[in-house]
Design a protein that fits this description.
four-stranded antiparallel sheet, 8 strands, 48% strand
Length: 92
């Protein structure tokens, strides 16, 4: 999936049920992970395991290619269940 973002915009925290790769094509994006921030200028690639929470911020007008690797249906259900349990725990 090709995604374009304007400078100084942000996709707030989200997760993917499958593994993903983010390939920055032009511009400069940052991914905010639970324990670090990863800068991805044009030409760089990052892979994330399933269910890793992250925000995406465009430091400048940017475009990136997002590739999703969907797990079998059983794994998707397990990931959704795990995410709901985590959300309930955080609300307490």
């Amino acid at each position: 999936m090709l995604i374009a973002m304007k400078a100084n915009t942000r996709m707030h925290e989200h997760t993917a049920a499958g593994r993903i790769s983010v390939h920055s094509l032009n511009g400069h994006i940052r991914l905010y992970l639970p324990e670090r921030v990863v800068d991805l200028p044009a030409g760089h690639l990052l892979a994330l395991d399933q269910c890793v929470p992250h925000d995406v911020e465009a430091a400048e007008d940017s475009a990136f290619l997002l590739t999703l690797s969907w797990p079998p249906e059983k794994k998707i259900v397990e990931a959704k269940t795990r995410r709901k349990k985590t959300a309930r725990h955080e609300q307490k």
